[in-house]
Amino acid sequence: MPTIRIDGPPVTDLDVKRQLVKELSEAAAKAYGLPINIITVLIRENKQENVGTGGQLLLDKLKE
Prior knowledge:
- There is one protein chain.
- With 64 residues, this protein is of the alpha+beta class.
- It has one domain (3-63): Macrophage Migration Inhibitory Factor.
- It has helices spanning 14-32, 58-63, and strands at residues 3-8, 40-45, 52-53, 56-57.
- The strands form two sheets. The protein has a two-stranded parallel ribbon with strand order 1-2.
- The longest helix is centred in the middle third of the chain and has 19 residues, at 14-32.
- The chain is elongated.
């Protein structure tokens, strides 16, 4: 069944995270024409020190 994977910065507010999962699940259920209860959302949170872009850690780029 459909699985949505999100990689991004940590979301510390649980209400925001709940809303994100709800809205993504609703959109996927609508797009696929499937019941929402079979949609899975996986959130992988990455600290800035664990993400690199353009040859630099995101943590260092944001300091510039």
